[in-house]
Design goal:
Pfam families: IL8. By secondary structure, this protein is α+β, with helices and mostly antiparallel strands. It contains two helices and three strands.
Length: 107
Amino acid sequence: MKALTQCIILLACVALSTSAAILNCRCLKTIQGLPYELITDVEVREPRPYCNKREVIVTLEDDTQRCLNPEGKFTRAVLQKQKKARADKTSTSSPTTAPTTATSTSS
């Protein structure tokens, strides 16, 4: 009887731990694509201890979020555009200072 109780407790723990992992993934369903102009932000979540899949979450103009298929062509294009935009932003945001020369005029 004692072994049966331990077995039931063990099975309950396993069931709870596996179901909790599914609940912590944000993307239960993914879409293949949508109009790029609607996207305002892109968030990539790499696999984590409680969610073993890569998730790509986009925020749209109306502040809703959608999950993209991380293996899809559209998602790869979105991530490439985001990477290029960030590279352009960092290269243009670095301040450039021109040397100034002080001139004095004496009257």
